[in-house]
Specification:
The protein is 23% helix and 29% strand. It is of the alpha+beta class.
């Protein structure tokens, strides 16, 4: 297994957002000294530390574990997609359709089994999201307003809008969506 360069990824993400070490320290509750050591690969951060940093920088945590070669790929093969999940929605599966999240947009497929929902966990993104129902029927609640969507329908979820998904049907629903900027 090749060595990870978490420090460079952290430094690049922080610089791209024009955030100083001191600002990131305030955002995470860590010291600037500790963050500097992580950026110089002198300290290996824990998963919890990376989670705090990724949330503060609004970057997906798995980005810290990609090699430069993996992050540069342009094509994503059907059998090589990164599968994402969230603990609060363990039955709902997200497949990353973009090769990386270093650009300005993220493209995913969400699979929601029948009789399943996001367990009343509302999500919010800093950017906007567009979702397109590929298969099935689903209800999306945007700021507590329900929108019934069928195959072929799409919805714009504005920035900073609380939203959640619910599949009342018996069949799985597949939803294709794009988010800008990337949030996973």
């Amino acid at each position: 297994m090749e060595d990870l360069d978490i420090g460079s990824v952290l430094q690049n993400c922080r610089s791209a957002r024009n955030i100083s070490l001191r600002q990131l320290a305030e955002m995470t509750g860590m010291t600037a000294s500790m963050l500097s050591q992580i950026e110089r690969n002198l300290v290996n951060p824990s998963i919890n530390t990376l989670k705090l940093i990724s949330m503060a920088l609004d970057v997906p945590m798995y980005k810290f574990f990609l090699s430069e070669e993996e992050d540069r790929d342009l094509v994503v093969r059907r059998d090589a997609r990164i599968t994402l999940g969230r603990p609060e929605t363990e039955d709902i599966v997200y497949e990353l359709l973009t090769a990386n999240v270093s650009g300005d947009i993220e493209f995913c497929m969400m699979h929601v089994p029948g009789k399943n929902d996001s367990h009343n966990v509302e999500t919010m993104h800093h950017g906007e999201e567009v979702a397109y129902v590929v298969k099935g029927r689903i209800t999306v609640y945007v700021n507590d307003v329900p929108y019934e969507l069928e195959e072929g329908d799409s919805v714009l979820i504005p920035p900073e809008s609380l939203h959640r998904w619910k599949n009342d049907g018996d069949e799985e629903c597949d939803v294709l969506f794009a988010i800008t900027p990337p949030s996973f």
